[in-house]
Amino acid sequence: MTGHRADADPSETQSIRAESVATSVPFLAGGGEMGALMRAHDWSRSPLGPPEQWPDALRMAVSICLNSRFPMLIWWGPDFVMLYNDAYRPILGMTKHPASLGRPGRAIWPETWSIIGPQLESIWQGEATWSTDLLLPLDRNNYLEEAYFTYSYSPIKHADGRIGGVFTAVTETTERILDERRLRTLRELAIRSAGAPTSEQACARVLDVLAAGNPDLPIALLYRLDEDRGVLRAAGSHRVPADRFPAEIPLDADDPWSVARAVRAGEAVQLDHLPFRFGSLTGTVWPEPVRRALVVPVPRLGAVGVAGALVVGVNPRRALDHDYRLFVDLLADHVATAISNARAAEEERRRADELARLEARFRDLADSAPVMIWVCDPAGLCTWVNRPWLAFRGRSLDAELGAGWLDAVHPDDRPRYLAVYQAALDRREAFRIEFRLRRHDGVWCQVDDTGVPHYAADGSFLGFVGSCVDVSDARRFEAALRKSREELLRLNETLETRVAERTEDLAAANRQLLAEIAEREQVEATLRQMQRLDAIGQLTSGVAHDFNNLLTVVLGNASHLERLWADSDDPKLMRRITHIRIAAERGAKLIAQLLAFSRRQRLEPRVLDLNETVTRMRELLATTMGGGIEIETVLEPSPWPALVDPTQLELVVLNLAINARDAMQIGGRLTVSTGNAERGDPARPEQPPPGHYVELAVSDTGTGMSDEVQAKAFEPFFTTKTVGKGSGLGLSQVLGFAKQSGGGVEIETAPGVGTTVRVFFPRAPVVHDDVAATGAEAAARAAASACVLVVDDDDDVRHVTATMLESLGHRVVEAGSGGAALERLAARDDIDIALIDFAMPGMSGLDLAREARARRPALPILFITGYADSTVLAGVRHEHILRKPFLDAELDRRIRAVLANSRAGTLDALMAPVR
Predict the structure, then answer these.
(1) Which residues carry this modification: 4-aspartylphosphate (predicted)?
(2) 370-470 fold
(3) Superfamily of domain covering 776-914
(4) Distance (Å, whole) CA 433 – CA 136
């Protein structure tokens, strides 16, 4: 009795299932973690059924999806069953992966189905959709999350045109949307709060900005610190009722919002469970209540300490991550700047008011100061007309120096006073002097003494009449006024410096934020472009593999029929067979062009003289251009040899010539030139790296390109031609081929002047004639016939290949898989060479080559492939790779060349990569 053990390990069973699926359905090969999950998944409970029964359209779409690094999703069937790749997994978050695999979309995305459901239904009408920065609320991390996406929905069609599902390429743009929104708030805050005359008005303007509807600011509170009273006073709120927060908070208290704690510690405090603390508080955008808040101290500019605190509610549909916290910190800095500028304006007005008050007081003092009137005769006898505050008797100035008037003058000022008075007496002229005088109560005061000459009616000099005014208070206030003015000037200077420094700090922070946003946008744009190219390349490669197999059968049979009916008397039959062959050859060239565009074509570089190529193509160019375009060639006199694929080189020249023709009017001139070039560091990504190159340039006298057109010139499918006149793949194909060859491209253009496209190919090393002669002689010595093992899982391709070989005189042994091929090798010793298909399910061609060489180290091997990934076969020389489709002559030449190399002893070097 057979069957599974009852105690079998589920993981072991799952692994066995995955291996079985991988063998039976090769389209699920690779794909990272999602590929492994798909292979191990139990599809019996899915509407899709087992992968072996999936339709071809779904298989191809899944293969492209799994092997792409761009987020991709497939909705299949009327239930929109979900299949996705590794890059899409982060979009599913923590809660929806891996449960989404193989499940209907409505069950996985109920929260967004009202939005995406109608879009998906519209695809069944055959119309693709495109959505840019669309808001999709997702429940992917255990809460309803605000998220934005740019995505497209495209129909997946069966071979008969029926729509089987929807293909989605998606990019999440949430971070960019949030950054732009937060930056707008910071800008508005800086603009609106500038120039506030008072700190109260500055806080009011701040709250107006916070209440403008940013979902990241659902609620807000603002407190200012009153240092004189040691309390925090509420400056206002946004969507927080007045009964939910205290108007004043003592600095040493513990309030429910933790404002005082944040101010005392100088650090942010996170508050959780707000509905339990204060009841339901909601913003203006989302219906959910605010559950968390961040309390951030507002710094005091130019001094140690804080100026207040800002309370900001956390968006209930976003996580409080590093970027969110940075945004709140920048808000607090802007608030600090607004309050500091307003306080500086208030301080300046207060100083100005104090200055005006001091000046008025000084004028009042001057008007009301005590005055003593005196008269002094020429003999020096002084008479005091009034003595309101001085107590001395009238005496002669020269009478007693130790008493009287001079005793009342300060000793330090007495010599100066006597000198001034004596000079005025000698010259009989007015005088004025300030000095210190002792009052009757013994206090020294500052007096302003003024005297003028007094004459009798007959003109005789009678003496001086003067006044002595107490200016002590006036001088004190004057000094205080001067000091206040100096302090105000110093305050203004330092304030301007502090404001300028803080403004520069905020400007630097804003610049850094802008630079980060710009850099992120540039990286996202570059990533999207690379991912689009990668997706298109993978799609192209997959299609090319299948088409090349078909073309091999068509072309091989058409060639066979041409030989079979060469002597037929029916010319119409021969023309039809020839048309089949020509169509197949054209299809093969088209596939080669697509692979060159996708940069996945295995190139066959050879040492070429570009002058010979251009000269040989001149007649073809003349036919292509027509009679209205003048063709000119400018060839390098001593060209370096170039290492390039000749077939792809001719396609490059034709592509560039056709583009030039379409850009010119009748009478234009096309110039094809060659040259040697030594290049330095590239300035643009399409230019070649430093090195020596052979240059091929195609110039025209056409319309030229604008800067905008030139910036998009290498994008796939971008074209300025009318519908039906161009696919937009020309320059993309040229760039892909040049880069894959190891070179690059450069465009010189100007509107109305014309365009020159320069393509650079690597300079080839010098190959001596004796080396080439050795290879030719070895090929000539190859056997006329050989026993060839043909290994290909496609029966039609294998049969056509065998027929070609037999018609060429070779003996053929066929095998449909790697295992069968090893059996043939073990059973027969006469096999001279193995012709192995590279892409086979189960044991690939590369795996078979390794195993065959392990058993028969001297066995020559030639790979055949519909497309050869350059990274996989990078170490295998092109002589050992034969691309499908091929004709019998090329097949025979390759087989004889490989056999000649093996007999010349060069097999090991050629086949080293498959060991």
Answers:
(1) 837
(2) Beta-Lactamase (3.30.450)
(3) Response regulator (3.40.50.2300)
(4) 88
Q: Which residues of 528-554 are buried (b: 16+ CB within 10 A; e: fewer)?
A: eeebebbbbbbbbbbbbbebbbbbbbb
Confidence band of 16 (pLDDT split at 50, 70, 90) = very low
885, amino acid identity: P
Q: What is the pLDDT of residues 565-574, one digit of tens each?
A: 766 667 777 7
pLDDT tens string 316-329 = 999 999 999 999 99
Q: How far apart are CA 896 and CA 779, in angstroms?
A: 6
Residue where the block lists tokens 């390759």: 894
Q: Tell me the two tokens of residue 599.
A: 């940069």
pLDDT for the residue numbered 115: 95
What whole-number distance in Å separates Cα of residue 395 and Cα of residue 399? 7
Residue 487 to residue 479: CA distance in whole angstroms:
12
**What dotted CATH number matches 178-347?**
3.30.450.40
pLDDT band at 900 (very low <50, low <70, confident <90, very high): confident
The whole-angstrom separation of Cα 257 and Cα 295 is 8
Please state, in angstroms and rounded to a whole number, the distance separating the CA atoms of residues 664 and 656. Answer: 13
Residues in the chain: 915
Helical (H) or strand (E) element with 540: helix 472-564
Judge whether 94 and 142 are in contact, CB under 8 Å: yes
Kindly report the backbone phi and psi dihedral angles of residue 505, in degrees, each rounded to the nearest multiple of 5, phi listed first.
-60, -45
Q: Terminal CA-to-CA distance of the chain, rounded, Å?
A: 43
Query: Domain 603-762 adopts which CATH fold?
Result: Heat Shock Protein 90 (3.30.565)
Q: What is the CATH number of domain 14-172?
A: 3.30.450.20
Mean pLDDT of the chain: 80
List, in sequence order, the alpha helices (H) in 741-817: 769-780, 795-807
pLDDT at 282: 94
Please state, in angstroms and rounded to a whole number, the distance separating the CA atoms of residues 297 and 329.
9
Calpha distance 687→675 (Å, rounded) = 16
Written as one letter, the residue type at 259 is: V
Phi and psi torsions of 26, nearest 5°? -65, -15
- Where do we find the tokens 């934005």? 148
